[in-house]
Specification:
The chain is α/β, with parallel strands linked by helices and 543 residues long. The chain contains 16 helices and 23 strands. The strands form five sheets. Strands 16-21-20-17-18-19 form a six-stranded mixed beta sheet, with helices on both faces. The longest helix is centred in the N-terminal third of the chain and has 16 residues. The radius of gyration is 27 Å and the shape is globular.
Length: 543
């Protein structure tokens, strides 16, 4: 015997099940893609897999052009698949998770979930119906196809001028109806279009951020449903399931369950997470919830480091929202989203700017590769002078500024997505590299973005307007006061004081710092620099 035997390392592998795994699926192109995607994942693990197509009541409704609102109950895309599972006609059902009721039938369980595809929504527009001066680049009074109460609710909130018509059929059928001229535009989930690799070159496609247009809970995720006593299969599904996605969509679906929502309910919930500067995992949730599809939705943003009871706290907050009196240091323009959204929710809102602006004439325009705008005023006073521009790209600090740019027929090539100005500056600097940048600014600007530029020699500031303060007594009995700039804040406090019951919202980091200098420590900052961010902030302090 060898006195020093060599030890062979033990290799542990998961043995494939001896039986064939039968996957139940609907027969649409998208459903088959999802089923085959799952089949491939399992086959890569060494398992034998077979697909079985099952017709659902939802499929039949699409054939008969029956709307969702005409169907009784929930789960009309899932019921027959679940029955096949319980009857052991299949071993595994593949669902679009957003179509799955929040409570599984007795004996069934969601054994795992896929990675999340992009949960964004698409507005697909016929090219002759595009208007770049309008929200979502959709012409006035356009006819838009969707049968989703959630999409209807949010779309009408942003664009009350449009007309909505129900849209049925699978994804290719819906797009054909658009091409045939039955609609000016239609709405679809990005993930479905992307999975089918459809050619949309003859159409205009607008991709809507889930932070702005909130998707359905678990949109972009596949749910793998099995019998709860099939422990062998559940262990297998564990090997392909995405645990991070599971945590996030569990929060989304908890909110859905607490509202007892389904496809009929105009409810959007989207959860994401990120590491903060202290390496803590922060969860961020966007919610859009309306009583009915034709009512203004309550739009909110929440964040937490503790997910225990998070869904309960969000829903309790939404239920506790009460209309308040709001004063904002801004003079409203026609079609501004902030006053229209809040007023439709029963709020009383007064807007009055405490500053005015004076245009500064442009004498010489340096030649640069980029032009970056830090405010809507900078856009307005720059383009009002009809500058002659060559081949130049545009950057904007946020969505509100980019919308102002769009009103002048220009599209932003960079849009900041954070209230952290330093972060926006760093992201912009990283994008442009060594490019030359022109910054149209106000006289006395803090130049917060400019200081983040790596190549300071390539930064050119151009004063295009000056700010003049008006110190006046407001006499407002508002319960919530929104300060939109440090200048407006300074003008307010020259002749006004905060009352003990008044809650404060600061639009941006510089305004927040100005409040801190005045020893005002308790205030809220919106998560984005636009009217939607302010609406969410107001509802966040209105309980």
């Amino acid at each position: 015997m060898d006195a020093n035997p060599k030890l062979s390392p033990k290799i542990f592998t998961f043995a494939p099940v001896s039986r064939k795994i039968i996957i139940g699926t609907r027969g649409s192109e998208l459903a088959l893609w999802q089923a085959n995607y799952t089949k491939n994942l399992l086959e890569e693990k060494g398992h034998k897999v077979e697909l079985k197509i099952i017709m659902t009541s939802g499929d039949q409704s699409q054939q008969w052009e029956t709307g969702f609102d005409k169907l009784d109950g929930k789960g009309f895309f899932t019921k027959e698949l679940e029955e096949a599972l319980l009857n052991k006609g299949i071993d595994l059902a593949v669902h679009s998770h957003k179509d799955l009721p929040t409570v599984s039938p007795e004996g069934l369980i969601v054994a795992g979930v896929s990675k999340r595809e992009d949960p964004s929504e698409l507005i697909i527009i016929r090219k002759d119906c595009v208007d770049e001066n309008q929200k979502f680049n959709l012409k006035q009074k356009a006819l838009v196809g969707t049968s989703s109460a959630r999409r209807k609710s949010q779309l009408l909130a942003f664009r009350p001028d449009i007309e909505i018509k129900d849209l049925r059929g699978n994804v290719p059928t819906r797009i054909k109806k658009l091409r045939d001229g039955e609609y000016d535009a239609i709405m679809l989930a990005y993930a479905g279009v992307e999975r089918l690799e459809l050619n949309l070159e003859d159409l205009h496609v607008e991709k809507l951020s889930p932070e702005e247009f909130v998707p359905a809970p678990a949109q972009g995720v596949l749910a793998w449903q099995a019998r709860e006593d099939d422990h062998e299969l559940m262990e297998i599904i564990d090997t392909i399931s995405d645990l991070d996605v599971l945590v996030k969509i569990n929060i989304e679906r908890q909110v859905l369950n607490m509202f007892d929502g389904g496809c009929h309910m105009p409810l959007g919930v989207y959860c994401d997470n990120e590491m903060d500067d202290e390496d803590r995992l922060r969860f961020m949730v966007w919610v859009s919830m309306a009583e009915t599809w034709d009512k203004q939705p309550k739009q909110l943003y929440f964040e937490t480091f503790d997910t225990d009871g998070f869904a309960d706290r969000m829903v309790d907050h939404i239920h506790a929202i009460k209309p308040r009196k709001v004063f904002v240091t801004k003079t409203f323009r026609e079609n501004d989203y902030l006053p229209s959204a809040l007023e439709r929710l029963g709020f009383k809102i007064e807007g009055k700017s405490l500053i005015e602006f004076k245009q500064i004439t442009i004498k010489q325009l340096p030649q640069t590769d980029w032009i970056f705008f830090s405010s809507k005023h900078a856009v307005r006073y720059f383009f009002n002078q009809k500058p002659k521009l060559g081949n130049v790209k545009f950057g904007c600090i946020g969505t509100s500024t980019s919308a102002e740019l769009r009103a002048f027929g220009k599209r932003a090539d960079f849009i900041g997505q954070s209230t952290d100005i330093k972060l926006v500056g760093k992201q912009f600097s990283s994008k442009i590299g060594n490019a030359r940048v022109l910054f149209p600014i106000a006289r006395g600007s803090m130049q917060s973005i400019q200081w983040q530029m790596v190549k300071r020699d390539n930064v050119f500031n151009l004063e295009v307007y000056a700010t003049l303060k008006h110190s006046v007594e407001i006499g407002s009995d508002a319960e919530i006061i929104i300060f939109t700039s440090p200048s407006n804040l300074e003008a307010f406090f020259e002749k006004n004081k905060l009352l003990p019951h008044q809650k404060v919202i600061a639009m941006g980091e510089s305004t927040g710092k100005a409040l801190q200098k005045l020893k005002i420590k308790v205030f809220t900052m919106p998560h984005r620099f636009d009217d939607l961010g302010l609406v969410r902030a107001v509802l966040g302090v209105s309980n």
